[in-house]
């Protein structure tokens, strides 16, 4: 069997309350480990509540599981349910909330959700099982809470930092079904994810760099278009907005189908000019000449006329956009490039971060387009001050622990910078000296991109006046740095 094509499977449990049929049990999710340094540990993400869940392994032999799942036959052809150990999976998920298999009556298949191609690695497909707790609702104190769809909707509508957040399993599994969604108007074959509610992500094949293969097209198209905003200071108005149409030419037809399903008053927002973020622009202007482009002027300067020759609105940060009753705020976010912008969806407090972060691993800075480490650090702190509920990168999955992820970036870059400084202090005189020492364990074919990263760090060290006083050495490094 080709392992590459296999998916990882996740089992999510909807545990109904015997005394109140509207309620189900949510588990407080464990945050990623702390850093052990006050500088970073002082930034804390709010509580995240989601369905109990566990990854499950498919077995080579038929499972001897004695658990009967009503409706499991509908999984036939998608997943070989005889080979997955339901009993073990259920035991592990129930243990998280202080229960065991015998506490629950009959189990039924609620739904099966195949994950879109976010990468890296296999998609994670989720089997949602539903069952009712028999007798007593004594679940683990402090980490469990009974909620109904209605109380979840209230939590989503009343965004307060102390209120806690809802995770993607409960939203995709239960909540989205009771909300109007533009996703239902999109082509049914499209692989997408709607999380947070109203924020639709479609990973589309693009000319991006490994380990990713796709760029997330973000779509906002609120159902109840009631454009009563007038001209109250919004930089752009529309009935729908898409972010970063970066799919390769071979997927233009798919993008065209998406755009055709959206309202004509369309805003196209691009975070920056890299081809894997703008390659789809040309097909959009062909199939919807009413669309307007919103970008930073540095980004616009680098987008070819062949890609976009229609209307364009310049944004530089702090502007508001009005999309069918929804407010989004443009955030100036230089670092990756000098014209890089992020976008905050105010109603869900989720932040579309462009290439400032990627779903997995660290993001590279583009030294040829004004990428700058000082800006990168500043933007990272700016993002943390916004206390977003989720980070939406253009490559990879949504990140649910924004402050933790951003602090991880700061910590890694500072430690790389400390190593570079140490190398300089120990006599490295040229960029090559530094790269060959700092990246000695890394394949030489990565040294060119490493060199531009080192250059950005040396510039940043110089700006912080941290380079050693030995003028001759420093001059020579800065000279070499500037000609690379
Ligand atoms: Zn980029």
TrEMBL record:
Residues 229-395 form the Metallo-beta-lactamase domain. InterPro entries: LACTB2_WH, Metallo-B-lactamas, RibonucZ/Hydroxyglut_hydro, Sec-metab_biosynth-thioest, WH-like_DNA-bd_sf. One of its GO terms (cellular component) is plastid. It holds the Pfam family Lactamase_B. This is Beta-lactamase-like protein.
């Amino acid at each position: 069997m080709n392992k590459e094509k296999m998916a990882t499977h996740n089992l999510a449990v909807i545990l109904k309350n015997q005394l109140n049929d509207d309620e189900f049990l949510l588990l407080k999710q464990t945050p990623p480990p702390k850093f052990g340094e006050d500088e970073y540990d002082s930034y804390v993400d709010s509580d995240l509540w989601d369905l109990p869940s566990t990854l499950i392994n498919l077995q080579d032999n038929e499972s001897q599981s004695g658990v009967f799942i009503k409706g499991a036959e509908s999984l036939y052809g998608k997943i070989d349910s005889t080979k997955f150990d339901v009993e073990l999976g259920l035991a592990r998920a129930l243990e998280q909330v202080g229960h065991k298999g015998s506490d629950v009556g009959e189990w039924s298949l609620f739904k099966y959700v195949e994950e879109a191609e976010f990468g890296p690695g296999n998609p994670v497909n989720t089997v949602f099982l539903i069952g009712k707790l028999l007798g007593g609702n004594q679940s683990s104190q402090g980490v469990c809470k009974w909620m109904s769809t209605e109380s979840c909707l209230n939590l989503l509508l009343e965004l307060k930092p102390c209120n806690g957040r809802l995770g993607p399993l409960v939203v995709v599994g239960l909540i989205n079904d009771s909300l109007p969604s533009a996703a239902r108007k999109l082509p049914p074959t499209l692989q997408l994810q709607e999380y947070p509610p109203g924020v639709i992500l479609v990973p589309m094949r693009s000319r991006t760099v490994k380990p990713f293969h796709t760029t997330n097209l973000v779509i906002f198209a609120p159902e109840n278009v009631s454009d009563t905003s007038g001209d109250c200071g919004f930089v752009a108005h529309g009935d729908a907005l898409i972010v970063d149409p970066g799919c390769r030419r071979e997927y233009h037809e798919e993008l065209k189908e998406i755009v055709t399903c959206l309202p004509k008053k369309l805003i196209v927002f691009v975070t920056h000019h890299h081809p894997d973020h703008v390659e789809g622009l040309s097909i959009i202007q062909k199939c919807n000449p009413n669309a307007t482009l919103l970008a930073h002027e540095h980004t616009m300067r680098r987008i070819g006329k062949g890609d976009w020759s229609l209307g364009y609105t310049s944004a530089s940060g702090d502007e508001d956009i009005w999309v069918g009753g929804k407010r989004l705020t443009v955030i100036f976010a230089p670092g990756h490039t000098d014209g890089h912008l992020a976008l905050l969806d105010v109603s869900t407090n989720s932040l579309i971060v462009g290439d400032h972060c990627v779903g997995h691993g660290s993001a590279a800075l583009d030294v040829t387009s004004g990428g700058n480490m000082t800006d990168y650090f500043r933007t990272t702190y700016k993002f943390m001050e916004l206390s977003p509920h989720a980070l939406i990168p253009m490559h990879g999955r949504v990140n649910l622990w924004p402050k933790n992820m951003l602090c991880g970036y700061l910590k890694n870059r500072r430690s790389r910078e400390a190593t570079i400084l140490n190398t300089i202090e120990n006599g490295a005189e040229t960029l090559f000296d530094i790269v060959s020492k700092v990246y000695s364990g890394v394949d030489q074919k990565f040294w060119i991109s490493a060199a531009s990263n080192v250059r950005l760090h040396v510039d940043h060290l110089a700006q912080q006046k941290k380079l050693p006083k030995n003028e001759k050495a420093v001059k020579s490094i800065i000279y070499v740095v500037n000609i690379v």
